[in-house]
Write a structure and sequence with these properties.
Blueprint (H helix, E strand, L loop, with lengths): L2 H6 L8 E2 L2 E2 L1 E2 L10 H14 L9 H20 L8 E4 L2 H16 L5 E4 L9 H10 L2 E4 L10 H7 L4 E7 L11 H10 L3 E5 L11 H4 L3 E5 L10 E5 L1 H6 L10 E4 L4 E3 L13 H17 L1 H20 L4 E4 L8 E6 L4 H10 L2 E2 L1 E3 L4 H7 L4 E5 L6 H18 L1
Parallel strand pairs: 3-15, 5-6, 5-7, 7-8, 8-9
Antiparallel strand pairs: 1-2, 4-10, 9-10, 11-12, 13-14, 14-17, 16-17
Helix pairs in contact: 2-10, 3-10, 4-5, 11-14, 12-14
The structure holds 4'-deoxy-4'-aminopyridoxal-5'-phosphate (PMP).
The site of 4'-deoxy-4'-aminopyridoxal-5'-phosphate has 14 residues, from helix 4.
């Protein structure tokens, strides 16, 4: 598997020394590094074509609008979105899900109905639904997990019933790595007339995603986890549902006509893109998508699988390490704890060696309670990681044990 080594030259930050040591970056689940192709595309746009979009009659305004809309088209194709006008640019996954919760949830989820989630949701796909439930008087239900951190689908079939208005599930867990059978879950939701929103923040960067096959009502992801800039993400929504929803944010661009006492709304997707959007960021995300497509998402998924399996095997062969999540069907994260060492101390010690991992609750506090831990350490992988990075992690854990245990 040569992918990691082949592409490392494209990521300038991988040449940076951290605390005098070569950087070993194992925190891509929090945010990924950026290849030259993305940095150059962002800069080129700002240097040569920058202007606001959808407004100016001037040449640069048209160039920028063309580039921004080309980004939308390319992203729509990348996720096999059934309709281009359903692809809405947002600031990222949390804004996408908040949009659905406020504009769909508060309007269409009714008192006494249920919203079905899982205990492995990131706070971004949990807290908005808590607010909706409180606002309308709906019940929150949680699909139980089996001891290996996979969902109990037999229980899901019972929980998702005639009362269910919304099913909100993550495609891939940012802690356990679990890849959920989202196609099946969407089907369960649709069978009872409920809508399904899928949090794809940890899936779109790592595997082929085909929304035509999955058929969700809403799907969200963040650009910065898939080699793109920060401040840009996507919500895909089914156009017929988006048309029935009220706007989330208001301002320029999302209106058609404004009177002193009322206003009417622009067509999709602009109805949900209030104000000047993140233009250069969308263009940077387009470059990221092109880069990922050139390598191939199947290949990236295979490389992730290889590295994660390798890391799990190596960690499992060390003494006194607790590993979390299933053994198969998992994404590119490994969460673990070393007995007697707080994950924050482990992360701080690894940092001295130039190794960046994440430690904490990973914005999944209910899941930490389910695991019965305060926090975990998490090493996450992406296409620029290699087996050498795993070796550095293992060496770092051994050193930490000598120093801290
Ligand atoms: N959902 C999941 C599953 C995530 O892993 C994350 C980020 N850790 C988010 C949502 C939030 O996305 P962002 O980092 O863009 O705020």
């Amino acid at each position: 598997m040569l992918l990691g080594r082949d592409v490392r030259k494209d990521f300038p930050i991988l040449n940076v020394k951290v605390n005098g040591k070569p950087l070993v970056y194992l925190d891509s689940a929090a945010s990924s590094q950026k290849p030259n192709a993305v940095l150059e595309s962002y800069c080129r746009f700002c240097e040569q074509r920058y202007s606001n979009v959808h407004r100016g009659i001037h040449t640069l305004g048209e160039a920028a609008t063309g580039d921004y809309e080309a980004a939308r088209g390319s992203i729509a194709e990348f996720i096999q979105a059934p309709a281009l006008e359903g692809v809405i640019f947002t600031r990222g996954t949390p804004e996408s899900i908040n949009l659905v919760a406020h504009s769909y949830g508060k309007k269409f989820v009714k008192h006494g109905q249920s919203i079905v989630l899982t205990p492995m949701e990131h706070h971004a796909n949990l807290v908005p639904w808590q607010l909706v439930a409180k606002f309308v008087g709906a019940e929150l239900r949680f699909i139980p997990m089996k001891s290996d951190g996979t969902l109990d689908l037999a229980e899901a079939r019972k929980l998702i019933d005639k009362t269910t208005a919304m099913v909100a599930v993550t495609h891939a867990s940012n802690v356990l790595g679990t890849i959920n059978p989202v196609g099946e879950i969407v089907e369960l939701a649709h069978k009872v007339g409920a809508k399904a929103v899928i949090d794809g923040a940890q899936a779109v960067p790592h595997m082929p995603v085909n929304l035509r096959e999955m058929n969700p009502d809403f799907y969200s992801f963040s650009g910065h986890k898939m080699l793109g800039p920060t401040g840009i993400g996507v919500l895909y929504g089914r156009p017929e549902i988006l048309n029935d929803m009220d706007p989330f944010l208001t301002g320029g661009e999302m209106i058609r006509e404004v009177y002193l006492d009322h206003a009417t709304w622009n067509d999709l997707p602009y109805k949900f893109e209030a104000g000047t959007p993140a233009i250069a960021e969308a263009i940077g995300l387009h470059a990221a998508v092109r880069y990922l497509q050139e390598i191939g998402m199947e290949r990236i998924a295979q490389m992730d699988h290889y590295l994660t399996t390798h890391a799990l095997e190596k960690l499992a062969s060390e003494p006194d390490i607790a590993l979390y999540g299933p053994l198969s069907q998992r994404g590119a994260v490994t969460s673990f704890n070393v007995k007697g060492i707080h994950p924050h101390d482990l992360a701080a010690l690894l940092d001295r060696e130039g190794i960046a991992i994440r430690a904490g609750h990973h914005c999944c506090q209910p899941l930490m309670r389910w695991l019965d831990v305060q926090a975990t350490a998490r090493a996450s992988f992406y296409l620029y990681n290699t087996a050498d990075d795993v070796a550095a992690l293992i060496e770092g854990v051994r050193t930490a044990r000598k120093v801290l245990a």
